[in-house]
Amino acid sequence: MTDVQITRDGAVATVTLNRPDKLNALDRDTRWQLIGALRAVAGDDGVRAVVLTGAGRAFCVGQDLAAVEELEHADETVAGSYNPIARTLADLPKPVVAAVNGPAVGAGLGLVLACDLRLAAETASFSCAFAKVGLVPDTGVSWHLVRELGYARAFALAALGRTFSAAEAKDYGLVNRVLPVDQVLGNAQELAGVLAAGPALALARTKRQLRAVGELPFDAVLAMEARHQGEAAAHPDHPEGRAAFAEKRAPRWT
């Protein structure tokens, strides 16, 4: 049994962290399996949307602290495997939906924040717990928290390492919906199915544009919008969308 599993339902791929006995903690093998799984679904033209979740009662509690040797050169560990996970999720040209079934701690919080849409169980919890073990945020947590919450709230969560509930996460705007635990995965897969049925090129370019905001100056974003709009307008999905609108029917995207 692998530590990361991929299942398919039509155009939706579900990537599951599968170390339930370790609360899906990330050791070196698991991280590389996750990178491989994400790259596999990214390169599969039959996959149009992705769900990321955890097996058992946790989503992911971050670094496996039992793998002490991995922290002897923590800079290399982060640069070599955690950063590629965050980058792969950000660059994935398909929407990624997080199905947060339980605690998301440290780098596990980073995985959630790297997803495009986030659904959480009522019993899920979140913590930027790095400081509790004398470490600093990684896996993109710093970037996402400041971007989404502002410096003051981001610093409070990072410095104090306080555990906060799914309801609080929704109030913060960090998750989109909170659901009963037995409905999270199904709803995430249903939502991914809606996205998978959409215009793939337009959604990929939309994801790229929105993620670039804050990194690029205004004029560069305007130029990106113009370039992407040209690509979208030249794609067969655009005339199909126009025709479907005029004929008052559902579009048949390529």
TrEMBL record:
InterPro entries named in the record: ClpP/crotonase-like_dom_sf (IPR029045), Enoyl-CoA_hyd/isom_CS (IPR018376), Enoyl-CoA_hydra/iso (IPR001753), Enoyl-CoA_hydra_C (IPR014748)
Region named Disordered: 230-254
PROSITE patterns: ENOYL_COA_HYDRATASE
Gene Ontology molecular-function annotations: catalytic activity
Entry-linked Gene3D superfamilies: 2-enoyl-CoA Hydratase, Chain A, domain 1 (3.90.226.10), Lyase 2-enoyl-coa Hydratase, Chain A, domain 2 (1.10.12.10)
Family designation: Belongs to the enoyl-CoA hydratase/isomerase family.
Record's protein name: Enoyl-CoA hydratase
Provenance organism: Pseudofrankia asymbiotica
